[in-house]
Amino acid sequence: MRILVINGPNLNMLGIREPDIYGKRTFHDLEESILAWAEEIGLDAELYQSNHEGDIVDRIQGALGRFDGILINPAAYTHTSVAILDALKAVGLPVCEVHLSDISGREEFRRFSYVSLYAGKTIAGKGFEGYREGLAWLRDRIGAGAP
Asked: Does the annotation count 22 as an active-site position?
């Protein structure tokens, strides 16, 4: 099973950006963890990070026919991007949305997620471990043959 893992804007600044919210571990640490967890459970994960909405949309569209599912942390685009939502709906792959912080307990504008309108599961507030949980959920969902 091939999984596309997408990280949105500013996640490349992990360890530097607001460590009281996101922790001191780096984006490199996150990517290494994701790849190790994917391998542990028999997934082939491809990692992608962009600060640009259109690039994320292009990558989602390019997943059609190449990947079995998408794990996405849309970051700030969570709350603003109908384009990312529409791209996810268009490709029709199973999607798990993940957030390092608990967006439901943050500023009011961060509490709504466009991506959650399509994602089969949203995991928030579990830090790096949320990605592990999301990978396992996708493996089980895809293995069961569910869209």
From this structure: yes
